[in-house]
Design goal:
This protein is α+β, with helices and mostly antiparallel strands. 20% of the residues lie in helices and 30% in strands. β1 and β2 form a beta hairpin. The protein is elongated and about 65 Å long.
C-alpha cells in the first residue's frame, strides 16, 4: 500500500511539473497578453456578489417617465443576456468600450461586463461593471482621478457619473460592492495588481455618482 501511494504521489508531481512547463511555454510563445488571456480559464474576475439578493428585473419596452413622478425613471425593457446594450467612456484615460449585459468569460473577452444582479443606468440603484486589466481593457483604470467623468451611453439615454472614490479590496469583501436600490451609484472594478499573472485575490474599484 505504501509503495502504491508513493508511486501515485510521484506521478502527480510529474504531471504538475509538465503543466508548469506547458504554461511557461505558452507565455513565451504567445506573449504576455495571450498568456494572461489563457489564465482566465482558471481565474474568474468577478467579485462574488450576493447571489441570493433579490432584485426585481425591469419589464418592458423603453425608458419612460413614471406617471406619478417625473423624476422617477423606469426601464421598461432590459437587454437580453449577453447583449451589447451600452458604451462606457472615460475620456480622462482615453477609454471607450462596449458594455455587455452579463459577466461570463466570453463576454469579458470582448468588453465590459454588467453584473446581472445590479441595476441599469437610470433606474436609481447600484450599477456594477467589471473588466479585465490587460491590453486595451481596464489597465489604465487606476489612472482615473477623483472628479473625472464617466459616461454610459445607452439606446435609451446618456448618463454621466463623477468619480468620488477608489479602493483596493479583497475579492471576498462583497460589502464593498453593495447592490442596493437606495441610490444610483456606479462601481467599476478589475483585478489587482494590474497585469497580475495568475490568480488575483484583490480588486481595484472605482466609485462614481
Amino acid at each position: 500500500m505504501g509503495k502504491e501511494i508513493l508511486k501515485a504521489t510521484i506521478f502527480w508531481i510529474i504531471v504538475a511539473f509538465f503543466i508548469v512547463i506547458i504554461i511557461s511555454m505558452m507565455a513565451i510563445k504567445f506573449g504576455k497578453e495571450k498568456f494572461l488571456e489563457a489564465t482566465d480559464l482558471i481565474q474568474i474576475i468577478t467579485v462574488d456578489t450576493n447571489s441570493n439578493a433579490e432584485r426585481p428585473l425591469p419589464e418592458l419596452k423603453n425608458f419612460k417617465e413614471n406617471e406619478l413622478a417625473n423624476e422617477i425613471k423606469v426601464l421598461m425593457n432590459c437587454p437580453a443576456y449577453g447583449e451589447n446594450y451600452a458604451t462606457l467612456k472615460i475620456s480622462s484615460i482615453d477609454l471607450e468600450l462596449p458594455i455587455y449585459y452579463g459577466k461570463t468569460l466570453d463576454l469579458l473577452k470582448n468588453g465590459i461586463g454588467h453584473d446581472d444582479e445590479s441595476y441599469f443606468p437610470g433606474e436609481g440603484g447600484s450599477i456594477v461593471l467589471m473588466g479585465h486589466n490587460y491590453g486595451k481593457f481596464l489597465a489604465n483604470l487606476p489612472k482615473a482621478k477623483l472628479g473625472d467623468k464617466i459616461e454610459i451611453v445607452t439606446g435609451y439615454g446618456e448618463f454621466e457619473f463623477t468619480i468620488y472614490d477608489a479602493q483596493i479590496i479583497k475579492e471576498t469583501e462583497i460589502d464593498k460592492v453593495p447592490i442596493t436600490d437606495q441610490e444610483e451609484k456606479l462601481m467599476i472594478y478589475t483585478c489587482w495588481p494590474i497585469n497580475n499573472i495568475g490568480y488575483a485575490t484583490e480588486r481595484y474599484v472605482v466609485y462614481a455618482k
